C-alpha cells in the first residue's frame, strides 16, 4: 500500500476539526494516497505473486496455497468469460465459508464482473428480490441451498447456474465431506435444476489457461452489497474497486505496522464472507499473506471449538455474540491461545462483560471497530496496542472525516450528541439504481448519514449512543422493520403489524412483532410458520404479541418509538 503524510500546514488546519490525528498511534499515517490505490484484482494478483507457496486458506484441515487460489480464481474467470460474461455483469454467490468461496469471489472480480453476495439462509422470496433488483445473470450456489433457487422461480434467468459442494477443492477429503453432507447428515434438500453445472466441471471449462486478462478500472463496481441503508428498503450499496481497495489501504495504514508479513500468521475466518465486515477482512488479510481458516458453520459452537483446538492461530475476527458463545463453551479452556495477538470485533456493539470474559480467557483485549456496508465497511477502530476494552468505536481511520451533526445537518461541537456522518474514499458511490435514496443518505457537503447517534470525545474517539433509524441489529446483521411488517401484512388474517427490536442476551437484539388481527382465529404458531416461509431465521420475530390497536400519529403513521418505549419499560433484557 502507498500512504503519505499530509503537509504540516494541512494537518494544523485540520487539527481543530480532526482532533484524533494528534492521538494516532506512533507511525500511523494521517492519510492514504487514495489515487494510488489499485483495484481488488491488482491487490489479489500482487498477493498471489508475493506469497505463492504459502497456505492462503484452510478448511477441514486441507489447505490451498496463494498460488493455487490464484489458479482456481483464474479458472472461474475463464469459465465466466466462456459463457459470455464480462465487465459490468453481475454474478451472485450464495454460499457460506467453504473452500470454493474465495476462488469464486476473486474469479468473478478477475473476469471484470460485479459480485452480488446473497445470504444462503434467505427464503425464496428474499432471494428472488435480490436477484431481480441486482440484475444478476449468473449464480454460484452451495448445493445445500439449491432448493431455494428452484422454489424462487428465478433459475431460468441465471446462466450459468453453478452448483458448489461443501468439499469442492478439498481433494479426497472433500469427496468424503460431500458424501457425509448429502447421504449421512442429509443436509442437502432435494432439488431439480437440470440446466445447472457442477463447480468441478466449471473449473475445467476452459481451465485457467483460457483466461483473457481484463482491463479493470478503479471506478468499476466490485460489489453490490445489499443493506437496508437508512430507510429500511433493501438496496444495493454500490462499492467500487477504489472504495474497497481504499478501505484495505486504510486498514493497512492502521494495522500494518503491527502485523508482520510472517508465514505463520493464522486468522480464524468465522464470520460469513457474504457479510461486508468479513469480506473486507478477507481481502485485507490475503494482502498480508495470512493463512485464513474458513469456518463454514460458526453456529456449530462445539465443532468450532474443536477446530480451534487443532489450530495455532494468531488472529480472530468476530462479533459480540460469537465471542460470547465461544467464551461460555465448556471446552474453550482446552484451546491454546498462546499465539493469539489480535482479536477484532465489529458488526454490532461489543458488551463490556463479554470483552472482560474474553480477556480473562485469552489474555487479549477485544479491539472494536465500526463500519457499515455503505462504507466498505470500516470507518473507525481502536488502536491495536489497547490494553483494555475501551467501549468506544475508536478513532477515524486515515483519510476519514467524521462529523457529528444536528437534525438540520449542521456540525455540532465536541461532546454534543448528534448523528454520526462520514466522508472518505471508502464511502460508496451510491445505492444501486436509487438516486433519490442516495441523495437522502448524503449531506450537502458530501458526508454519508449513518443513522447512528454518537458523541465525539475530546481526543477524537467516537462513542455510539443509539440509533436514529428503526433498524434492529441481530448478531451483527441488519433487520429492517419495514420488511418484516410487509411480510406480516401478507398474511390474510393480519390487519396491521408493527415491529421493533428488543434487548436479547444472546443476539444483542431480537425482533418483536405486535399484530392486530383481521381474523380472530389467528395464532402465534401461524405467524411463525408464515415468517419461516418468507424470512431468513435471524429476521423472524422471537416475540409475537396480539393487540387491539397500535400507536399511530394523527395521519396514521405507526409510532414505533412509542411502542418501543412502552415495551422496554416493561420487559427486561434477555428475551
Characterise this structure:
The chain has 575 residues and is of the alpha/beta class. The protein has 3 domains: 35-381, ANL, N-terminal domain (Rossmann fold); 395-467, Luciferase, Domain 3 (Luciferase, domain 3, Roll), CATH 2.30.38; 472-570, GMP Synthetase, Chain A, domain 3 (2-Layer Sandwich), CATH 3.30.300.30. The protein is 31% helix and 23% strand. The strands form 6 sheets. A 9-stranded mixed sheet has the order 4-3-13-12-14-15-16-17-18. The chain has an 8-stranded mixed sheet with strand order 9-8-7-5-6-10-11-21, sandwiched between helices. Helix 2 (40-51) packs across helix 3, helix 5 crosses helix 6 (146-152) and helix 9 (241-255) packs across helix 10 (276-287). It is globular and about 65 Å long. The model is unreliable at 1-16 and 571-575 (pLDDT under 50).
The CATH superfamily of the largest domain appears as ANL, N-terminal domain
Rg, rounded, reads 23 Å
CATH class of the largest domain: Alpha Beta
CATH topology of the largest domain: the name is Rossmann fold
Strand order, sheet with most strands: 4-3-13-12-14-15-16-17-18
The fraction of residues assigned to DSSP E strands is: 15-25%
Structural class: alpha/beta
User: Sheet bearing the most strands, described?
Assistant: 9 strands, mixed
Q: What's the architecture of the largest domain in CATH terms?
A: 3-Layer(aba) Sandwich
The count of DSSP E runs of length 2 or more, i.e. the number of strands, is: 28
Which stretches are poorly predicted, pLDDT < 50 over at least 5 residues?
1-16, 571-575
Termini separation comes to 46 Å
